[in-house]
Amino acid sequence: MAQINAKFVTSNTDFKNCPPARFPEFAFIGRSNVGKSSLINSLTFHKGLAKTSQTPGKTQLINHFIIDEKWYLVDLPGYGFAKVSKEKRKEFEKMIFDYLIHRENLTCLFVLVDIRLKPQAVDIEFMNRMVEDEIPFYIVFTKADKLSQKQVNESVDLYKNFLLEMWDELPPIFITSAEKHVGREDILKSIEQLIQS
Ligand code: GTP
Ligand code: MG
Predict the structure, then answer these.
(1) Residue 73 included in any domain
(2) Which residue puts its alpha carbon closest to atom 23 of ligand 1?
(3) Residue 142 lies in a domain
(4) 24-40 pLDDT per residue, tens
(5) CA-proximal residue: ligand 1, atom 16 (nearest)
(6) Within a domain: residue 84?
């Protein structure tokens, strides 16, 4: 895999202040602590590019990175973070949804879910909202290193069957471990394909 050039651009609370929308953009979202920032660091081969933490709620802004001077990668705050006040959570949600709905160059959203958990209401609600708002998304299972291969397969099958009860077809699905750098090539390939299509 060729070296990736990744640079931090800006952090914003308001999508209107995000960098000019002149490159295709790919954003990473999911519950707090699911591993968004870690996956971004794995994808870009830059350990400290996106700030990670064991404490949920680390990423609180819309963070833009420019990759190889040709696409934007965006690290978003987690949704469903229980430990902040109701007002703060509303503020976060507004910030995230305003960004998702209005960002014209958002090519695809990667929705991260922890592979160890059964389908969680907050993730399912979020994905259904993306379907309603016609925001294209892919699903990424994180922390696969925490399970055996057998458990990984069982967990993914269970999730797929759950989704197929609601939807006629599934979006592309990725199984990843930021820790072991699993799945990053597949994600990078899918981004490359979307940029070229
Ligand atoms: P917020 O910014 O708070 O929303 O969290 P985040 O989704 O960006 O999660 P972050 O990347 O900060 O990771 C949260 C915790 O999970 C950290 O302690 C990471 O080390 C751990 N983690 C993330 N990805 C993996 C993984 O693939 N495997 C393992 N074992 N741990 C991981
Ligand atoms: Mg983060």
Answers:
(1) yes
(2) 35
(3) yes
(4) 999 999 998 999 999 99
(5) 35
(6) yes
The total number of structural domains in the chain stands at 1
88 lines ligand 1 (CB under 6 A): no
Q: pLDDT per residue over 147-195, tens digit each?
A: 999 999 999 999 999 999 999 999 999 999 999 999 999 999 999 999 9
CATH number at residue 127: 3.40.50.300
Instruction: Please check whether residue 160 lies inside any domain of the structure.
Output: yes
Spatial contact of 62 and 100, defined as CB atoms under 8 Å apart: no
CB-based contact 78:99 (threshold 8 Å): no
Structure ipTM: 0.98
Which structural domain range is residue 103 located in?
Answer: 6-196
Pocket flag, ligand 1, residue 143 (CB < 6 Å): yes
pLDDT for 105 equals: 97
Closest-approaching ligand to the CA atom of 114: 1
